[in-house]
């Protein structure tokens, strides 16, 4: 049996590899998406004061520290049974909207964009952010940089730092927003709305108007019918910061809806010996292996999942785009995994609109930003929607507030089973008769790239410059072919 190894996989946050095994006919017999790194973050948090967790856990990742900061502080709120003032919640959420807009921009233009804007089988030296800028022009490249600048500026003004914010603490936040800061944040948010609309139009012009790309999105290669998870508000509209977790089945019907502290009644984790990550699944359906359908407990938690699990968007422009996507792709739920990119841009627009809503709320500059925790610490769960999936922080403490146990289910962990399924299906569909090319293997990588996985503390190299070696072995273990990037 021949073996193809893609190591390292590229344009993601973190490190991973794909092992593809071919049968005697050169077709794919099996595929494994492996995470070869172990970090053990949960274990070395034990013994720390719980109030440190919003700062400690945002060091898990340099790409999405704001997500861990918010999940961590919400869990700490729950540990002390303290309800922060409304202004504190709004400031947290305002920071989070700016982060969301920045993160989704980064993924679409730098990580996913090269596959569509430059082309999935374009020369690898061009398939990167520089290739995207060359294709669309320096002016658009400047807009992308400006969006990131405004997002980080807003995070810094509210959170104290551009990266690894520090303002959220149990019971609220540490910083009051001035009127001058509010005005600047509002202006940046209004610019972000225009940028989001521009990005959606670019997606329409470059991807949806290209029959080859549209066929790739709606085709079977990147399609799986699973359950879908997302946080929703009281009206079942998409919410990133607060609400209940809603899960719908492959037909779009509500399967369950639960508060953060009820997640253990609904989610369990499966372990495989060939990877360090666990595979979460719906406990009330059960683990049936890496298969889709109603009888399988596999679920997905991505931008597309959030839209599938909700009844709509809470802002008007995003709602229009939400309706357009489902009308174009044949109604809810959408199972085509490459449509995650479209959903991500709709969420970018929602984040920008809500950014302005929060920045123009009369109470956003109120000095009432903290309520001192007075309860005896016990146990708490905090859930937010990270850009790449539902993020759960669960803390247990002693009576002094020192952590005795920590459980983290991050967005990418939720998606590990569907990522495994998607990469295998793409490999089986694309690799035939042992014929392999670098461009073909990039299309296998596109299967996981749609999920925007974040594996541990990511270290970024410029895509296209990261060395990639693909080694193909025969059944005797001898090297048959080596492809280099």
Summarize the model shown.
The chain is an alpha+beta fold and 485 residues long. Helices cover 41% and strands 18% of the residues. The longest helix is centred in the N-terminal third of the chain and has 33 residues, at 86-118.
Feature tags:
about 475 residues, alpha+beta, Cytochrome-c3 Hydrogenase, chain B, 3 domains, about 20% strand
Explain how this protein is built:
It is a single chain. The protein is an alpha+beta fold and 485 residues long. The protein is built from 14 helices and 18 strands. It has helices at residues 41-45, 53-56, 65-80, 86-118, 129-136, 138-159, 179-208, 211-218, 303-309, 316-329, 340-359, 411-414, 416-430, 438-449, and strands at 2-7, 13-14, 17-22, 28-34, 168-169, 172-173, 227-232, 244-248, 254-258, 267-270, 279-282, 299-300, 379-386, 389-397, 403-409, 454-455, 469-473, 479-484. The strands form 6 sheets. Strands 4-3-1-17-18 form a 5-stranded antiparallel β-sheet, with helices on one face. The longest helix has 33 residues, at 86-118. It is globular. The two termini are 24 Å apart. Residues 457-469 have low confidence and may be disordered.
Give the tally of β-strands: 18
Using only C-alpha atoms, the radius of gyration works out to: 22 Å
Q: Per DSSP, what share of the residues sits in E-state strands of 2 or more residues?
A: 15-25%
The CATH architecture of the largest domain can be named as Orthogonal Bundle
Q: State the strand order across the main sheet.
A: 4-3-1-17-18
Shape: globular
What's the number of domains?
3
Individual helix count: 14
> Could you say which structural class the secondary elements and strand pairing correspond to?
alpha+beta
* CATH superfamily heading of the largest domain: Cytochrome-c3 Hydrogenase, chain B
**Unreliable runs:** 457-469
């Amino acid at each position: 049996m021949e073996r193809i190894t893609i190591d390292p996989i590229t344009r993601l946050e973190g490190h991973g590899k794909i092992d593809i095994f071919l049968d005697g006919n050169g077709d794919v017999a099996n595929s494994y998406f492996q995470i070869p790194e172990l970090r053990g973050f949960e274990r070395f948090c034990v013994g720390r004061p719980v109030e440190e967790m919003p700062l400690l856990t945002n060091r898990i990742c340099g790409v999405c520290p704001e997500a861990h900061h918010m999940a961590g502080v919400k869990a700490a709120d729950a540990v002390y049974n303290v309800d922060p003032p409304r202004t504190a919640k709004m400031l947290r959420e305002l920071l989070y909207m700016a982060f969301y807009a920045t993160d989704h921009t980064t993924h679409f233009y730098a990580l996913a964009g090269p596959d569509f804007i430059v082309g999935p089988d374009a020369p690898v030296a061009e398939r990167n952010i520089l290739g995207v800028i060359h294709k669309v022009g320096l002016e658009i490249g400047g807009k992308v940089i400006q969006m990131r600048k405004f997002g980080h500026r807003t995070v810094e003004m509210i959170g104290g730092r551009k990266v690894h914010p520090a303002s959220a603490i149990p019971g609220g936040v540490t910083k009051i927003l001035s009127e001058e800061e509010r005005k600047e944040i509002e202006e940046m948010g209004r610019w972000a709305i225009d940028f989001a609309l521009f990005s959606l139009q670019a997606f329409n012009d470059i991807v949806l108007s290209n029959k080859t790309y549209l066929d790739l999105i709606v085709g079977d290669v990147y399609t799986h019918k699973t359950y879908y998870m997302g946080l929703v508000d009281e009206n079942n509209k998409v919410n990133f910061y607060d609400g209940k977790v809603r899960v719908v089945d492959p037909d779009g019907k509500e399967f369950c809806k639960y508060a953060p502290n009820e997640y253990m009644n609904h989610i369990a984790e499966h372990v495989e010996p060939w990877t360090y990550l666990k595979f979460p699944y719906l406990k009330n359906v059960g683990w049936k292996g890496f298969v889709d359908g109603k009888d399988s407990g596999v679920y997905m938690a991505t931008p597309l999942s959030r839209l599938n699990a909700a009844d709509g968007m809470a802002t008007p422009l995003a709602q229009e785009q939400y309706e357009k996507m489902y009308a174009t792709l044949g109604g809810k739920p959408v199972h085509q995994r490459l449509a995650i990119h479209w959903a991500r841009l709709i969420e970018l627009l929602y984040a920008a609109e809500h950014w302005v809503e929060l920045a123009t709320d009369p109470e956003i500059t109120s000095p009432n930003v903290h309520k001192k925790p007075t309860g005896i610490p016990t146990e708490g769960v905090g859930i937010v929607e990270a850009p790449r999936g539902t993020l759960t922080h669960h803390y247990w403490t002693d009576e002094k507030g020192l952590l005795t146990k920590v459980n983290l289910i991050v967005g990418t962990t939720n998606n590990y089973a569907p990522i495994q399924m998607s990469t295998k299906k793409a490999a089986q569909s694309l690799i035939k008769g042992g014929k392999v090319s670098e461009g073909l293997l990039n299309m296998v990588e596109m299967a996981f790239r749609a999920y925007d996985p974040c594996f541990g503390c990511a270290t970024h190299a410029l895509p296209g410059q990261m060395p990639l070696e693909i080694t193909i072995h025969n059944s005797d273990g001898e090297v048959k072919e080596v492809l280099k990037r």
